[in-house]
Amino acid sequence: MPLRDHFHPPLSVRHSWEGFHGQWPAMLVQRLFPNLPDGYTAEPRVHLGTYFEIDVAGFEDESETEPRTGSSSGDGGVATLSYAPPQPTLTIDLDLGEQYEYEVLVYDQTRERRLVAAVEIVSPANKDRPEHRQLFIAKCATLLQKGVCVSIVDLVTLRRANLYTELLELVGSSDEVLGVDPPATYAVTCRTRIVARKTRLDNWAYPLELSRPLPSLPLWLAEGVAVALDLEGSYEETCRVLRIP
After folding, report:
1. Which of 96, 148, 192, 220 is the most exposed place for a label (fewest CB within 10 A)?
2. In angstroms, rounded to a whole number, what is the distance separating the alpha carbons of residues 187 and 214?
């Protein structure tokens, strides 16, 4: 069955991409479980950040104040602090934002529930600003550095950024499979392994096209142990459950 465009009319008018992204991890886990060897388990996870923020300025005095040098003791006196830190050399307003996370995590229960694989489903918020892209890429790079297999699935047609390409740029590389103008939609599995005391990064990348089926990705659980991540089957099952034509 074909890949739909969940981010533009006519489909986006009738069905929200948030609903699809929220359901797909559960369908991926359902398809994945029968293929997992004994001792491995998988679970879906969705984190949408905060939908509201407290206006701290409404509760704090905006005026500059000197740091306190003492605190009240139990008998009403003042206890002298052992150390009063100096004023910071730089203070800036910082908005890193909270990453929207739609993912499937696979654990090895025989190794104290060690995380061995992660499937990251890209959301528009992961691609909308440079700092958000950097946070997503840093997360994937950290997982790979720890030996966790990472699959990235990007169906977002709203923005052209290719997070897999930017991840490779972080290590000074590129992938000819995606061409000189990498597509906005793609699926890829990345894993690290040690060969002759050197760390190698293996990648299985596939461009995604509207009206074309999705591929299966290899999901590595350990050296010599991999299972198929059925993107097409789980995708169609999600569309069926949500009545997405």
Report:
1. 96
2. 8
Q: What is the pLDDT of residues 14-43, one digit of tens each?
A: 999 999 999 999 999 999 999 999 999 999
**Boundaries of domain holding 39:** 11-48+98-241
Which of 159, 94, 101, 185 lies closest to 131, judged by CA?
94
The structure tokens listed for 147 are 């030996």
Which residue from 154, 147, 146 is spatially nearest to 119, judged by alpha carbons? 154
CB under 8 Å to 166, separation ≥6 — which residues? 133, 137
Mean pLDDT along residues 98-104: 83
**Could you tell me if residue 76 is inside a domain?**
no
pTM: 0.82
- The residues, any chain, with a CB within 8 Å of residue 127's CB and separated by 6 or more, are 133, 154, 156, 158, 159, 161, 163
Per-residue pLDDT reduced to its tens digit, 42-93: 999 998 765 433 333 333 444 444 444 455 555 555 555 578 888 887 786 6
